[in-house]
Automatic annotation (TrEMBL):
<keyword id="KW-0067">ATP-binding</keyword>
<keyword id="KW-0548">Nucleotidyltransferase</keyword>
<dbReference type="GO" id="GO:0005524">
    <property type="term" value="F:ATP binding"/>
</dbReference>
<dbReference type="InterPro" id="IPR015865">
    <property type="entry name" value="Riboflavin_kinase_bac/euk"/>
</dbReference>
<keyword id="KW-0808">Transferase</keyword>
<keyword id="KW-0547">Nucleotide-binding</keyword>
<comment type="function">
    <text>Catalyzes the phosphorylation of riboflavin to FMN followed by the adenylation of FMN to FAD.</text>
</comment>
<dbReference type="InterPro" id="IPR015864">
    <property type="entry name" value="FAD_synthase"/>
</dbReference>
<dbReference type="InterPro" id="IPR002606">
    <property type="entry name" value="Riboflavin_kinase_bac"/>
</dbReference>
<comment type="pathway">
    <text>Cofactor biosynthesis; FAD biosynthesis; FAD from FMN: step 1/1.</text>
</comment>
<dbReference type="Pfam" id="PF01687">
    <property type="entry name" value="Flavokinase"/>
</dbReference>
<dbReference type="GO" id="GO:0003919">
    <property type="term" value="F:FMN adenylyltransferase activity"/>
</dbReference>
<keyword id="KW-0274">FAD</keyword>
<dbReference type="GO" id="GO:0009398">
    <property type="term" value="P:FMN biosynthetic process"/>
</dbReference>
<keyword id="KW-0418">Kinase</keyword>
<dbReference type="Pfam" id="PF06574">
    <property type="entry name" value="FAD_syn"/>
</dbReference>
<dbReference type="InterPro" id="IPR014729">
    <property type="entry name" value="Rossmann-like_a/b/a_fold"/>
</dbReference>
Length: 313
């Protein structure tokens, strides 16, 4: 489990030298994973502390605000995913406009050299930081010569002839192509939320659903999905609907999950919903009976999909 810090004061004298990377890491996809694993391996090889430097909130949220796209991972999930990769420290720096105004040399000196005792820095193929994004690979190499640290830039990770990127993944998820997003993320896309009281229409239909109050920003395209539901330590099969329940004339977006063969009271519980494959578009039905028949078909198809070896999480 990584130690998460947010200020230079928390470092104290715990790091004698470090191998680090720096980035936003939205989604912690397979490109990010390759980079972070390389940092961990190099740190071990040179007897250094492995550190991932990231920011909260995302710099775009401070500099651009409302024009930013929805992020794939909120900070809590991002830090957990990074920690799971085996890094020693995550330095999650509070991002402000004042920090953004720092020249790259100032940032490197204060945070990386004096703070982290940087010995090696490994960055992604397109990473740049600092005022006007002047902190690119070429400048970092010069700063490395000045301050005594080595810099390496990794090539982009490719999948099916294209670069793995947060933008590519976000587009797939928003198009409902959650199955296609999995190889790029290294996992199924998931959202997290608390189960709340709903309209109890699912129970009346004999298909009770967990209504989820969500914090996440990015949602798959409206429709019905085969999902895995992570509840406490259990992984349970289910079918989820993202939409407005047009048959009942809802005006607000909701995420409802029918967990298969499950009848426990889980109000107030936090669950993770892992989206495996999209089954169909949301549709308005002419009768409750027609809706019930369609839900039965959805469940049969969902079971079939989740029974495939490649659908296991």
């Amino acid at each position: 489990m990584a130690k998460i810090i947010s200020s230079l004061n928390q470092i104290n004298n715990n790091i004698h030298c470090s191998c680090a990377t720096i980035g936003n890491f939205d989604g912690v996809h397979i490109g990010h994973q390759t980079l972070i694993k390389k940092v961990c391996a190099r740190a071990k090889a040179i007897n250094a502390t492995s550190v991932v430097v990231t920011f909260d909130p995302h710099p775009l949220r401070v500099l651009v605000d409302s024009k930013t796209p929805p992020f794939i991972t909120l900070t809590e999930q991002k830090l957990q995913l990074i920690s799971d990769l085996g890094v020693d420290y995550i330095f999650c720096i509070p991002f402000t406009k004042k920090l953004a105004s720092l020249e790259p040399k100032e940032f490197v000196k204060i945070y990386l050299v004096n703070g982290l005792k940087l010995k090696e820095l490994i960055i992604g193929y397109d990473y740049a930081f600092g005022k006007n994004r002047k902190g690119n690979f070429n400048l970092l190499k010069k700063l490395g010569e000045e301050f005594g640290f080595r810099v390496e830039q990794l090539s982009p990770v490719m999948y099916k002839g294209a670069i793995v990127s947060s933008t590519r993944i976000r587009d797939l998820i928003q198009a409902g192509k959650v199955w296609e997003a999995r190889p790029l993320l290294g996992r199924f896309y998931q959202v997290k939320g608390t189960v709340i009281e709903g309209k109890k229409r699912g129970a009346r239909l004999l298909f009770p659903t967990a209504n989820i109050a969500l914090k996440d920003e990015l949602f798959p395209k409206l429709g019905v999905y085969a999902v895995w539901v992570e509840l406490d330590t259990n992984i349970l099969p289910g079918v989820a609907n993202i939409g407005y329940n047009p048959t009942f004339g809802n005006e607000y977006l909701s995420v409802e999950v029918h967990i298969l063969n499950f009848n426990q009271n889980i109000y107030g519980k936090t669950i993770n919903v892992h989206f495996v494959q999209r089954l169909r578009n949301e549709k308005k039905f002419s009768s409750i009976q027609e809706l019930k028949e369609q839900i039965q078909k959805d469940i049969l198809l969902g079971k079939k999909i989740l029974s495939q070896p490649e659908a296991v999480i």
